[in-house]
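New here. Your pick:
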Amino acid sequence: MKGFWKMMKRYIAPFRKYLVGSVVLNILSAVFNIFSFAMIVPMLRILFRMTDKTYTFTPWADVWNMPFKDMGDAAMQNIYHGLESAIATYGEPNVLLALCIFLVITTALKTACYFGSAGVMVPIRAGVVKNIRMEIYDKILSLPIGFFSEEKKGDVIARMSGDVQEVENSVAGSIEMLIKNPILIVIYFAALIVISWEMTTFTIVFAPVMIWVMGVIGKNLKKKSLDVQNLWSDVMSQVEETLGGLRVIKAFIAEGKMSERFDKVTGAMKDKTERVSLRQALAHPVSEFMGTLLITIVHFFGGHHIMSGKTVVDAPMFIYYMVILYSIINPIKDFSKASYAIPKGMASMERINKVLDAVNDIVEPKDPKPIGGFNDRISFNDVHFRYPDGQKMILDGVSLEIPKGKTVAIVGASGAGKSTLVDLIPRFYDPDSGSITIDGTDLREASLKDIRSLIGNVNQESILFNDTIFNNIAFGVENASMDDVIAAARIANAHDFIMEKEGGYSFNIGDRGVKLSGGQRQRISIARAILKNPPILILDEATASLDTESEKIVQEALDRLMSSRTTIAIAHRLSTIRNADEIIVMHEGRIVERGRHEELLALNGHYRKLNDMQAL
């Protein structure tokens, strides 16, 4: 339960005012409930002509000064003395009518307070879930890219959807029980003591036994629920993989294989879910049985004394006692529900915390050095880097100078470390040793905002969003006007095809730009980079996946984008970087050759081999 109270403190604190309202309304609801049921006693006594007894009146000031055990009896004496006077004055039918009206009024007030207490909990439940989702989302945005190379996207999605939903159903749903039930139990229990402390002794002995039995049922439920949520992550991961690879699945006639994989994981989840659900289903009948057993024992005890003449209370008061006792059973059963609901939800919270507590190793400096612009050069100084798995050195002692206004191309075989090298510039990762500087300032000493505001990216895979063309081009640029977006699109050779779309710049491009061709998506990406107008441009094989015609159009747009900018281009096709100021050839994490196109050909080394392979 330590984790539960920690979660309560973390997420419930902002809703204190709603909690206060819930406490007040639940107290009023319980009080009105007791008074409404209290009308049963005088109504029965009037109906069955049991009012022969004479009651004495004690001043109320004296009643409040009495010992607690005598206070209830004196208060009841005063109430029945008043009823006797009313019957003598107005007659039994009129008093009975007044009692019925009072019963209706108190019941209406009770139900209104009950509704109010439930109503003020709605913002708490909804707010807690919203805050958890926002915290996860913000954490996802803040985590380094390296984190997601170790985690499955489907698993992250499952934690944000299924796990948060489980927290809402199990934990947030229990908050109301934990606020309401103690109030009801205390007030009802006080009423039971006032009515008959002897019969209440049975409740004191039996209620903890009932809660203990329910605790046994909820034992190990957290572990089983955690297994279910892990399998749910596997289900979501496979769905995400299937949607992303549907074209390949169909092309290789692998529908049967994928269906078999999915059936296996959903079958395992079904088995685990059945075990959890059966244990949950057992809780209600057991609590119902235990509650009935408690009622039966008290019923026998009280009824036996009434029939034998050993009057603990008279018959109407005994009925009232049983009504209150039955009312206290439900809060106790709710506590037992919480004993298995909370562990189930905390299993999901444990999975959520794996994301929320993930360590971000890209640390912002406390006092960052300002980078006002890019005026001189980017420098790699003996940079070493390996990914978190630590199995292979990706960059091994790289030193490189990229002067302002120059175009530097990086080439090499797959796995040579080209993309990793450029990913270090916007601090997607930090080097294990060595340093990277912009105008002499170590990137680790500058703010991420300052660094990334200087850089524009155009990747091999165009990363677009399910939004309009305008919003995709203006992405990340505040207060961009339509004229600015159109100007950027013209430079990117995108304006003409945009105007052919229905709605022009308001055209929604679909998920990941699926409604556009590859060349069109890439030109939208280039327009986005042009609008940002960064001094440093990173091109990661920006034309590698395009056909010849699209490549020509995109290359023209890139040439316009690269003019007057410092450009670092990862090249797949060497023909696109022949005019680069310097070409860096990488092999197994090292720079093995560098120079201009003609100089590298003359070396007859790695570059010449790459060039000859593409000439075939």
